[in-house]
Write a structure and sequence with these properties.
Order of helices and strands: HEHHEHHEHH
Shape: globular
Strand content: 5-15%
Largest sheet: 3 strands, parallel
Radius of gyration: 20 Å
Number of helices: 7
Length: about 190
């Protein structure tokens, strides 16, 4: 399951999909964002040029609000996107799914993994300094790479139920399924 579709619908103002839900009257549906969706889990990092793929995604997002990006490098294109989007009164929402996937996919090809790691390190350095331009940033990934220097809220009590499902919600929502699994695995479930 991915958080990205939920964010995309909400951030693009798809209010009808949230009718009668908690969020409906708590979200400013008139505010529009430029959504940049970088889903690294959907690419084959062994067969693509990572920087060019990101540049293409930036170009695709920019075209949604009729922005033509300038610059040759990923850094130049991303900074141009941030500045031009803000000039159009749109802050950028950056959704990064599987931030570590381009490294993990190439683990057996160490030179390519290192190259992808450097591309991502430079890209995430720009992201870290982009706060004035960002309306929202969501980054998911499987591993913690200290060299990428991202804020990790995975085990922070302040954020434990921010996204996803709490333990209590899981117990209540999936009680029947959990009981079936426990029976099948010959495990005893607590009351």
């Amino acid at each position: 399951w991915s958080i990205t579709p939920l964010c995309l619908y909400r951030l693009r103002g798809s209010r009808g999909l949230f009718k009668d839900l908690w969020i409906e009257d708590k979200w400013d549906w008139d505010t529009k964002y430029l959504v940049v969706d970088l889903d690294f889990t959907q690419i084959d990092s062994n067969s693509i040029e990572l920087a060019q793929w990101i540049i293409q995604k930036l170009n695709d997002s920019a075209s949604e609000i009729e922005i033509n990006l300038k610059g040759e490098t990923l850094k130049e294109r991303f900074e141009d996107l941030l500045q031009k989007s803000l000039r159009k009164n749109r802050r950028v929402v950056l959704l990064i799914e599987g931030y570590d996937q381009p490294i993990l996919d190439c683990w057996s090809n160490f030179p390519l993994a290192q190259k992808n790691k450097e591309i991502l390190r430079h890209f995430y350095a720009i992201v870290k300094n982009a706060d004035p331009y960002l309306g929202f940033l969501l980054v998911t990934g499987a591993n913690k790479f200290s060299e990428l220097n991202l804020l990790d809220i995975s085990f922070s009590p302040a954020f434990h139920d921010l996204l996803g499902i709490t333990h209590t919600e899981m117990e209540l929502t999936f009680a029947d399924e959990l009981n079936d699994i426990a029976l099948e695995m010959k495990l005893e479930r607590g009351a």
